[in-house]
Design goal:
The protein is α/β, with parallel strands linked by helices. It has four helices and six strands. Strands 4-3-2-1-5-6 form a six-stranded mixed beta sheet, with helices on both faces. The two termini are about 15 Å apart. The model has no long low-confidence stretch (mean pLDDT about 90).
Length: about 140
């Protein structure tokens, strides 16, 4: 499947306690935050994950890579890759990784602008970050 034929993308903002989830549509090039999956030391609640896959049946998985500001990997980068590769294997779906530097800051700014401090719950921030990760993926494919 060529990259521009992916129709539904499920995106993840990996974290040790919560993993943000968003769904993106290639037709519009936009994504919608869905919520977050609880995790214990980076190991997600499998039932919650499965419910997202069952509902959205994605053509592609996109996982954000939390790199250092200089672009070098850190331990959580390797953990995010392991998480993504496991999803690709378990759900037999292709995967892409996207640099997610500054998505959390951008997510907080967007949420604050659209709801103030009350909108800055951890669940909202992770899901909004996942939305930005998916839309960043779409932007990276323009012109392909």
């Amino acid at each position: 499947m060529a990259e521009n034929t992916y129709k539904t993308i499920l995106g993840f903002d990996f974290g040790k306690k919560y993993i943000g989830v968003a769904v993106g549509q290639a037709i519009t090039g936009t994504a919608t935050p869905l919520g977050s999956v609880k995790a214990k030391d980076g190991i997600p609640n499998q039932q919650q994950l499965k419910s997202y896959f069952d509902e959205w049946q994605p053509d592609l998985i996109v996982v954000g890579l939390p790199l250092n500001m200089d672009g070098t990997p850190q331990q959580v980068t390797f953990d995010a890759k392991k998480f993504g590769n496991r999803l690709a294997h378990d759900y037999k779906t292709p995967i892409k990784f996207v640099d997610e530097r500054l998505t959390t800051a951008d997510a907080k700014q967007h949420l604050f602008e659209h709801g103030g401090y009350r909108n800055l719950s951890k669940d909202n921030i992770d899901a909004e970050s996942a939305r930005l990760i998916v839309e960043s993926y779409f932007e990276s494919t323009y012109g392909e």
